[in-house]
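Notes from hallway chat w/ T.B., transcribed later so I don't forget. T.B. wanted the structure written out for a chain they're using in a teaching module, and asked if we could keep both sequence and structure tokens in one place. Agreed to drop them here.
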Amino acid sequence: MAYIRFWEWGIGHWAWEDEVDESSSEMDESSSEMDERSSEMDESSSEVDESSSEMDESSSEVDESSSEVDERSSEMDESSSEVDESSSEVDKSVFNSPCPLLPSSPIPSQCLWR
């Protein structure tokens, strides 16, 4: 009878070991899947970091170009102001001139070339 009980205990014990081995295999498989997913996430993260670096570089180039455009715009504004000032001086000298601007007007003697 002791032999039968030992045999029953052995079957139960070995069955329990089989369950533990099966659970351990499932855990190993799950761990492998998690490692694979983690590697995929790391790869995706690296791609995102690379894209972010490229975007930062592009943004810096755009900022630099924008600064150049702003500088040129300021130069153009300054040049335009100088032209406006010169034009105003020309307008003053022409309108203050005793000589008529329109050819149909009579020309005073001081405006005639000799």
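Follow-up for T.B.: The CA atoms of residues 48 and 54 lie 10 Å apart. Might be a good example for the class.
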